[in-house]
Amino acid sequence: MVESIQSILTQFKSSTGVNKVLVVSRTGMFIDGDYLDNQDTFSAMSAIVLGASETATSMLGGVERIVIHLEEGYKLTITSAGKRGVLAVISTKDHWKEISQLKEKLKDLL
């Protein structure tokens, strides 16, 4: 049986303790995950930031992840999730190993 995106995200959050995790489409539409006050804007801009980074660095190689350091020690990690998804994770610690595993679980669903 195939797991749902929501169950995969719930497992990820409970095992890592991240603050928020969202999956959005490459076009910037929210797919699943945690709610944010500015959900539509955050979803769209996460997709735009990843797409712009990939375009700007296309001659240098693929973009693995984008990490934005926020106030109060938070980090926003944006990365691709499958061919059509973008994964955005807000946390206080670096969870790249776990995020990489999450990407693998999501790639066939997106």
Structural overview:
This protein is of the alpha+beta class. It has a single domain, classed as 2-Layer Sandwich (Beta-Lactamase). 37% of the residues lie in helices and 25% in strands. The protein has helices at residues 5-16, 39-56, 96-106; strands spanning 20-25, 30-33, 66-69, 75-81, 85-91. A five-stranded antiparallel β-sheet has the order 2-1-5-4-3, sandwiched between helices. A hairpin with a 3-residue loop joins strand 4 and strand 5 (85-91). Helix 1 (5-16) runs antiparallel to helix 3 (96-106). The radius of gyration is 13 Å and the shape is globular. The model has no long low-confidence stretch (mean pLDDT 94).
Oligomeric composition of the shown chains: single chain
Based on helices, strands and strand pairing, what is the structural class?
alpha+beta
Which percent band covers the strand fraction? 25-35%
**Main sheet: strand order:** 2-1-5-4-3
Q: Name the CATH superfamily assignment.
A: Dynein light chain 2a, cytoplasmic
CATH classification class? Alpha Beta
In the CATH hierarchy, what is the architecture at level 2? 2-Layer Sandwich
Mean pLDDT level: 94
Shape: globular
> The CATH topology, please?
Beta-Lactamase
List keywords for this structure.
110 residues, Beta-Lactamase, 5-stranded antiparallel beta sheet, 5 strands, globular
Condensed summary:
The chain is α+β, with helices and mostly antiparallel strands. It has three helices and five strands, in the order αββαβββα.
